[in-house]
Amino acid sequence: MSQYLPLGDDHDVHVMAKTRVNGDDPVWQVLRATFPGDVTWNFDGIFLLDRDGVALGRYTASQLERLDADLSYLLTQEGAGGAGDS
Prior knowledge:
By secondary structure, the protein is an alpha+beta fold. It has helices at 26-34, 64-77; strands at residues 46-49, 55-59. The chain has a two-stranded antiparallel sheet with strand order 1-2. The chain is globular. The relative contact order is 0.12. Residues 80-86 have low confidence and may be disordered.
């Protein structure tokens, strides 16, 4: 997976280990509690979190344009440099 991720000094990428998204993993439990419902397919469990880890939205694979718009808006709200600024 790391071969597809932009790694380096300018990126802060976190990759989770393989897990059962509808199981007892605490991250997925919080996400599904915030936006209820099982994840029915690998790419239908798309969640947008802010830099503090607060879940802001849940998207399906057919909602990628909405996700892109919401992410673009979030980046403008979190500073000119984007969500990675500290």
